[in-house]
Structure formats: C-alpha cells, structure tokens
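Reading group handout, session on sequence-to-structure problems. Before we discuss, look at one worked example. The prompt was deliberately terse, the way you'd type it at a terminal:

> structure Uracil phosphoribosyltransferase

The input record follows.
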Amino acid sequence: MSVIEVRHPLVRHKLGLMRAAEISTKKFRELTAEVARLLAYEATADFPLETVRVECWSGPTDIEQIKGRKVTVVPILRAGIGMLDGVLDMVPNAKISVVGLARDHETLQPVHYFENFVGQLDERCALIIDPMLATAGSMIATVDLLKKRGCRDIRALVLVAAPEGVRALAAAHPDVRCWTAAIDSHLNEQGYIIPGLGDAGDKIFGTK
Ligand SMILES: O=P(O)(O)OC[C@H]1O[C@H](OP(=O)(O)OP(=O)(O)O)[C@H](O)[C@@H]1O
Ligand SMILES: O=c1cc[nH]c(=O)[nH]1
Ligand SMILES: [Mg+2]
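And the output record:
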C-alpha cells in the first residue's frame, strides 16, 4: 500500500477540527502544523538507528542515534509552507528544497514556476509536504523532479487525499509512500476534494 492513512486518534481529532467551515486562519495554520508534526513522526518510523557509546553522568553508556540520515523537506508552494514548521519540529536538521507548482483551474494540470533543490539528493530522504493530494498531478510532478536529480528515498505527507489521487500516485510512482490524515470520498467537478478542507492554500495564506 503506497498511501497510508494514519489512524492515530490525535490525527483524526485534529483533522476533524480543520473541516469546520468558519475556521479562522490562525486555527487552520495551527492545526496544519500540528497534524504535519504527527505525520512526520509516522513517516520517519523506519529510520535506521545505530548504537554509539557516550559519556553519561554515570559513566560510559550505549545510546541509539539516527544513522547518517540526510533529509530534505520539500514543501510544494504555496500550501506546503503551512506544514513546514511542524515537520521541522521533528527533523530539525533537515535541509529545505522548494518546488513551486500551481494548478491550472481549467485543466487541473500543475504549472511549474519555481524550484530550488539542495545538493546530494542521491544521498537524501525527501519528505514532500503539501496539504492536498487531489488529482496527484502536483505530487507526481514533484516526485519526477526529485527522481531526475537522483533522489531514491521519496516520501510524501499530505493532510487529505482523494481516492483518485491515491490511485494516480500509486500508478505513477509505486515506490513512493504517502502518509495522509484522511482518504476522503471523491473529487468534485472543479477538482476539489469532498468533503476535504476547501482551498488549503487560501486558508493558510488568508487569501480567501
Ligand atoms: O493533486 P492536485 O490535483 O495537483 O491538487 C493539489 C494541489 O493543489 C493545491 O495547490 P494550488 O495549485 O491551489 O496552489 P497553492 O498552494 O498556491 O494554493 C494543493 O496545495 C496541491 O499543491
Ligand atoms: O480540495 C482541494 C484540491 C486542491 N487544492 C486544494 O487546496 N483543495
Ligand atoms: Mg490553492
């Protein structure tokens, strides 16, 4: 299964709060960061550990630490920025790469307008962040860009996914795992997820 719906009660509760029609920008931003933090926790659960010996207060002691893991967090502009602080709380040493994509409202195809990747992508785990996986066009385009630069360990974190997007991402990139707080019902004719969250970028940036 390449899309993993996180069933943790905290995730389900917080995502439920985000669905309120009259939610304030402040509350939506706070909950976006909180759910992002929990998704990052889940998505990093298989990071390998190594044992090292340190000088503890009581003498030499073996401790575990994450083994040589280079991470880049990849927010998809704009809305992905809303998840960035939450994910960085969990992986504070990660480098940040940025991809700018905006969906054309008529065709629903992603239009590429910016990219800035950190180096050594072939050695890094990439955590792509974007609140919404609708048709998955934006996510697939971002994975394409990362793979072209040699990145092999690519993971995605989204708040809400549509079944259409889940299928499209699995077909295009079966090796990419995606953690989501919810797989919703369907896309409407305008390509919005139902019930969804509405326009996540507008809600995070206050541009409704
Ligand atoms: O799965 P898809 O069909 O590609 O749709 C999802 C994309 O649409 C939204 O961004 P949008 O294009 O609205 O840009 P914004 O973040 O600047 O608002 C969302 O944040 C995703 O990036
Ligand atoms: O439901 C959706 C689909 C795409 N982008 C959003 O912000 N919301
Ligand atoms: Mg938007």
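Points for discussion. First: Residues 186 and 194 are 5 Å apart (CA to CA). Second: The two ends are 35 Å apart (CA to CA).
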